[in-house]
Amino acid sequence: MTAVETAPAPAARPDQESPVPTAIVPTPQQSAWQRDRLGVFFHFGMNTFHGVEWSDGTLPASSFDPSDLDADQWVATAKELGARYVVLTAKHHDGFCLWPTATTDYSVRSSPWRDGRGDVVREVSDACARHGVKFGFYLSPWDRNAPAYADEAAYDDFYAQQLRELCTGYGRVDEIWFDGAGSEGHRYDWARISSVIHELQPQAMVFNMGAPTIRWVGNEDGLAADPVEYVVRKTEFSNYTVETVELTDALYLPPECDVSLRRGWFWHPEDAPKTLDHLLAIYYRSVGLGANLLLNLPPDSTGRLPQEDVRRLRELRTELDRRFAAPLPAGVREVAPGVWELDFGSAVTFDHLWLTEELAGGQRVTAHELCDATGTPFASGFTVGSQRVQIFEPVTTRTVTVRVTGEGAVLTGATAFLAGVTSVPEIAYLATTDAPL
User: Fold this and answer.
1) CA torsion angle for 333, 38, 249, 89 (degrees, to 10)?
2) Residue 161, SS3?
3) Residues in Cβ contact with 185 at an 8 Å cutoff, skipping those fewer than 6 apart
4) Are 146 and 96 in contact (CB under 8 A)?
5) For residues 240 and 433, is the Cβ–Cβ distance under 8 A?
6) For the residues 408-426, what does the mean pLDDT come to?
7) Of 331, 353, 354, 401, which is closest to residue 373 (Cα–Cα)?
8) Average pLDDT, stretch 383-405?
9) How far apart are the C-alpha atoms of 54 and 224, rounded to whole Å?
10) Can you tell me the mean pLDDT for 153-164?
11) How far apart are alpha carbons 427 and 407 in whole angstroms?
């Protein structure tokens, strides 16, 4: 979300594809996931100990040996930030497994950590249960260690067994993350793989591949772009290719914006967390545009989140709480077709407005414009969705008129805030699109 426009409500973009059917609606699980809004990623594994982002599957398992792994610290930090769910890299592209799998020796079972009896997935899932945070895992389809990867049918057996282990041994799973990186040209038996999830963890959100229920936003910067469309006909494949996956039918697939707190997804000693302003910009341009945000917190080689990272996250939580500490709720009613009145009961001054849309019948709002009591426009945009945060110069008014475009669109909530901030900070840098081979 950039500087607020004061022009009339935007028309449909000339480059937009023909509208998708509006009757495509979210499942209860998708609606619950969208209400969660914020999750945390934990990238941890062999790469953590070798200063790389992608290792090739040949690094020795003996090098995985965190001296002070504390999953409670990870999950407690996520919860303090406000995250409702976490996703752990149970297996990254190098094939090293953070649980004692029966499918390969390349796992924690072959490491000196906990004398070969450790299980990172268990420790994180148990910590989630203790702290009341939902648990999910990332299982890389691409595997640079498994000999079976060269044989597609044999690898399907191997991968389905890994997925079955993770879906049966760790309680309820709320998100399963499939990363397309490295899988270009490889054919997976997604029907078979997806059947494991449907059998064992049918409530889990499935990220981007197979039988997805949520999709990748299309970059690793944590940034959505207006309009944020929940019904799509294709998904982006990875950050390192322009390849897309065409869907047989249009599907309701709300986006998840993934980004790391640091430049790297894995911890590197020379790296540092993003600035507070950078993180706030990400929040406004993900959650503030109606997407979910998955913020990666990479534990270090001791197995703990660095204190400088924890401090930055507390700064972020403190600032978000400050900005949204004093809600000014408005009554919402439709006064004419496509025209909604927000009534605060008396004149109030605010510089943020949080809108929500009814999604049970599908996403309907395709554009909206905000006007004060004199009819003067002061903000506009495209979609609203699960939440839309508009930011602008202070406005003092009792009522706001919201003009919406979209057949059957219904606004369900509006809350104003006086945050003392009238613009979204700049993004300090973007993630590389060069594969870290």
Assistant:
1) -170
2) helix
3) none
4) no
5) yes
6) 97
7) 401
8) 98
9) 25
10) 98
11) 35
Q: How far apart are CA 63 and CA 94, in angstroms?
A: 14
Asked if residues 127 and 121 have their Cβ atoms less than 8 Å apart, the reply is no
β-bridge mates for residue 342, sequence order: 332, 400
Q: How do strand 411-417 and strand 328-329 relate by DSSP bridges?
A: antiparallel
> What pTM was computed for the model?
0.94
User: How far is 1 from 284, CA to CA, in rounded Å?
Assistant: 6
With a cut of 90, say whether residue 8 has pLDDT above it.
no
Contact 403, 368 (CB under 8 A): yes
Distances (CA, A) of 297 to 29, 126, 273, 346: 25, 18, 9, 43
* Amino acid identity, position 344: F
331-346 confidence digits (pLDDT tens): 999 999 999 999 999 9
DSSP string over 178-222: ---TT-TT----HHHHHHHHHHH-TTSEEESSSS-SBEE-SSSS-
CB 330 within 8 A of CB 343: yes
Burial class (CB in 10 A: 0-12, 13-18, 19+), 260: buried
Point out which residues pair with 328 in neighbouring strands.
Answer: 416
Q: State the Cα–Cα distance between residues 249 and 237, nearest whole angstrom.
A: 17
**CA 385 from centroid of its chain's CA atoms:** 15
pLDDT by residue (tens digit) across 115-130? 999 999 999 999 999 9
Which tokens hold the place of 296? 């990666």
- Bridge partners, residue 205, by sequence: 175
Tokens of 381: 């945009």
**Higher model confidence: residue 437 or residue 24?**
24
Under DSSP, is residue 415 helix (H, G, I), strand (E, B) or coil?
Answer: strand
Q: Give kind and range of the element (H or E) at residue 319.
A: helix 307-323
Q: Distance (Å, rounded) from C-alpha 92 to C-alpha 44? A: 9
Closest CA to 417 of 385, 390, 379: 390
Residue 365 has, within 13 A of its CA and on its CB side, a CA count of: 33
- Alpha carbons within 13 angstroms on the beta-carbon side of residue 194 total 13
Q: Scan for tokens 């997925």, then name that residue.
A: 163
Residue with tokens 């895992």: 137
Hey, which bits of 193-311 come out as E strands? 205-207, 215-216, 231-236, 244-252, 255-260, 292-296
